[in-house]
Amino acid sequence: MLLKNSLLLAGVMFSLIQPAQAFQPDYKKAFSGYNGCFMLYDNSSKKMVAEYNPDNRCAQRIPPNSTFKVPLALMAFDSGVINKNTVFKWDGQPYDLPGWSQDQTPASWEKYSVVWVSQQILPELGMDKIKQYLAQFNYGNQNFSGDKGKNNGLTHAWLSSSLKISAQEQMSLLQRFANGTLPISHEAMEETKKIIYAGKLDQGADYYGKTGSGWKNRSDNGQNNGKMRDGWYIGMVENAGKEYLFVSNITDKTQPKASENKAGGPIAKEISLKLLNSYFSTK
């Protein structure tokens, strides 16, 4: 006899187990107004657990912008250009962006996404070593030339410029990073992971992440062409002894209004955290 939420079999009462709510987000609503991609990979069981990939967006290369600070930190720690005690001295030039107008540590460099720190580190690494790391990491198109005709790769290649990478390639790098299989020191990977720690999801899982913000089709003279935003959020989640990796990106479908002053990276982060909080609320 079937009872409410229970089953009577051979005189023994069994409770019906109610399945956890399926993770079925409204991706079209989440990414409304943007061309976008989202991937969530269970690195413990080695399987993709959620994916939004309209028109094969996750395979399309766009500039990494400040997500490049993750592989750059890996390079810098591995080569000895920086260590956990490094202090980057501020030159006194005032900046409008929060947290930039002060001395920086490796952690604050990542937290505030301080471009001037990256522009100090890269010349110390040098173009030859950078190209070697890009090849070892299989990092996108590996083009570090910078803006056309400007010879500014060491200061601008990743900033809506020549260097481009797909979400799938970002995921591949995160997998090798998380699994400790990059051809660099384990200390470099451990220190990099520490400095991208971002906090806890709503249900308490620790997450690590890095945003990236830029402009679609930035013109060759370095100006922003049409103000169409690119945005990234990439990282890791640790939940109940399991590790997950995520990558998301967005590009405006139409030019945003002048009043819409939020950069692409924070938009991608906001979308990602909503999706991650929804997914892990069932775990």
UniProtKB/TrEMBL annotation:
UniProt xrefs under Pfam families: Transpeptidase
Enzyme Commission identifier(s): 3.5.2.6
Penicillin-binding protein transpeptidase domain location: 36-271
Position of the signal peptide: 1-22
Catalytic activity: a beta-lactam + H2O = a substituted beta-amino acid
Enzyme class: hydrolase
Keywords: Antibiotic resistance, Hydrolase, Signal
Matching PANTHER family: BETA-LACTAMASE YBXI-RELATED, PEPTIDOGLYCAN D,D-TRANSPEPTIDASE
Family note: Belongs to the class-D beta-lactamase family.
Protein name per UniProt: Beta-lactamase
Source species of the chain: Iodobacter arcticus
